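Risk register update: the risk of archive-format incompatibility is retired. Evidence:
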Amino acid sequence: MKKLIFRKLNTDFTIFFLLSITSITLIIWVIQAVNYLDIVVEDGHSFKIYFYYSLLNIPKIISKTLPFVFFLSIIYILLNYESNNQLLIYWHIGITKVEFIKKLINYSFIYLLIQLIFSSYLVPSSQNFSRSFFKNSDLNLLDGMMKEKRFVDTVKNLTIFIMNEKNGELKKVFLKENFNKDNYQIINSKSGIILPTNKKILRLNNGSILTRKNEQMSEIGFFETNFNIDKFQTKTTTDIKTNENSTLNLLKCVHQILGYSKQKYLFNNCRKSNLKNIAEVLYQRLLLPFFIPALVLIASLLILKSRNDEGFNNYLLKIFIFGIALIVCAEVSLKYAGISSLINCLLFFSPFIFSIIIFIYIKKKLQFKK
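Archived output:
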């Protein structure tokens, strides 16, 4: 009997959790996908790259929203069971409230493991993979630059202005290429075309080239010249960020920086000056998921009061605020990771301390009621 009703509890919770996290993830993904349109409009990437890049952000969205959705789902199920008097069935067949809470904690470890998999493996892998699309993509830069009567600086060190463009035929083209801070080249032509055989070459006609180099100015005219866009790079960041490295690589990096390993294991941003940032990423991936059992215990405070008790709505509001505050504080505490060994130690034990304190409080409250 106990197995059956706990199985129903698990089923009800799982269904509501999956529906909630799917809905919230889709809403956030659509909003982000609209913002990512700059990848196509401003940076000249194809819609294929845009679609893959936005799609690969789904694991990150799930990882970010999972603790909140989990907490919300627990509260909803407990309130629903309380409203339908289903919790009374548990008490009547001999299941104590402490035993019920322990069962919820056991469920939370499943979601803790899921969150660990997402935060420590799936999210960095998907982010790194999405970044690789920018590195390996064949940029359609010219299409991104073909904006009439606008100065466009989609790529580094190049500004382009086109008065008119129609079917690859250009009128009044202005190009400025910056070699460095003081040296540059300006090309001004009356007309031009995008070569159909090579979408990265502009053929310019009837113009002049003004060059500044080593404080010397020179100008030459031309009847026809080719300008290759292929040598330029998009302004989209293609370097792998710290939070896009694998968890194993970050741990090896910390091991090396602290001097525990003589082997040089370097990657982008693996340096002592970036140690605090690496510590924040590791704390987020490996320790924040352990706040999930604490969220279960906060939601379990609901069973200490009946919905018929006076002030139950205010009590519910306080529990909800308490849970949200814990999620926010856990995220804010990331900023303190890596400051000192003492703070690192406090951060490491904080989710376990929270869980123990709340569990002891619940047990004492239940004993007092007896």
